[in-house]
Write a structure and sequence with these properties.
Blueprint: E1 2-4, E2 10-16, E3 19-24, E4 34-40, E5 43-47, E6 54-58, E7 64-70, H1 76-88, E8 96-98, E9 112-116, E10 128-134, E11 147-150, E12 153-157, E13 169-174, E14 187-188, E15 194-198, E16 205-207, E17 213-221
Antiparallel strand pairs: 1-2, 2-3, 4-7, 5-6, 7-17, 8-15, 9-10, 10-13, 11-12, 11-14, 12-13, 15-17, 16-17
Length: 223
């Protein structure tokens, strides 16, 4: 579902966990000069003061993307629609989608049309995605470090993906599943993106004697 607001910036309305989320579309051009992606996992660490032995506990579902997007210096004409889109974010309220510019195509050789295999029950917070629809009995369909998208979420593949004789595969992913994927839901491997929000309610840009504008913004996963 889409609509144009009074600023003529395209906004999509999506349903996520029973809530309606507004997704702002950033201008396609100019592209980002750089995108820094961060990954973090919440781990509780206890170290013995006597032996130095360390015990750790990973908190399920507390893994998360964040990053910073930066534009090359912009003319006023280039910057205006970007400025409007960033203001349409309404601080940390609304969402937008972005991916790794160097991860648009996988290193693996995807064969078939992979979709979610709902015959195996999973829960939100799971770290394995079950798929069907691959060409049967193939190796290296996806390789470690490749990206995939399920729903509105961006995941990294952790192990080489191998299909069985029925075209099914278990894919180990990071971060964990945010929502329970639906049977038959598409697994996107080309131009995958995730769902993010601004990391701060305040935005900043600067202009100088060159009449060019410099802007970057931190973002975090939409949770």
């Amino acid at each position: 579902m889409c609509c144009f607001n009074s600023e003529k910036t395209l906004i999509s309305l999506i349903e996520l966990n029973g809530n309606t989320v507004s997704v702002v579309t950033l201008p396609v051009s100019p592209a980002f000069a750089s995108v820094q992606l961060n990954f973090s996992t919440s781990v509780s660490v206890v170290e013995s003061v006597f032996t130095g032995q360390v015990q750790t506990q990973v908190w399920p579902g507390a893994d998360m993307w964040s990053g910073t997007a930066t534009y090359a210096p912009l003319t006023q004409k280039q910057f205006n629609p970007i400025k409007a889109a960033l203001m349409q974010m309404q601080g940390m309220s609304n969402a937008f989608q972005i991916g790794d510019p160097l991860g648009a195509t996988p290193a693996g050789t995807v064969q078939g049309t992979p979709v979610v295999d709902g015959s195996i029950a999973v829960v939100a917070g799971g770290i394995t995605l079950y798929a069907r629809g691959f060409t049967p009995s193939q190796i290296n369909l996806l390789l470690p470090g490749d990206y995939l998208q399920v729903g509105y979420r961006l995941h990294t593949v952790l192990d080489a993906v191998i299909s069985d004789s029925n075209g099914k595969a278990a894919i180990n992913i990071w971060p964990s599943l945010r929502e329970v994927p639906q049977d038959g839901e598409a697994i996107v491997t080309t131009n995958p993106v995730g769902l993010f929000r601004l990391a701060k309610n305040q935005g900043t840009w600067s202009s100088d004697f060159t009449k060019l504008t410099h802007v970057s913004f931190p973002f975090q996963e939409f949770r």
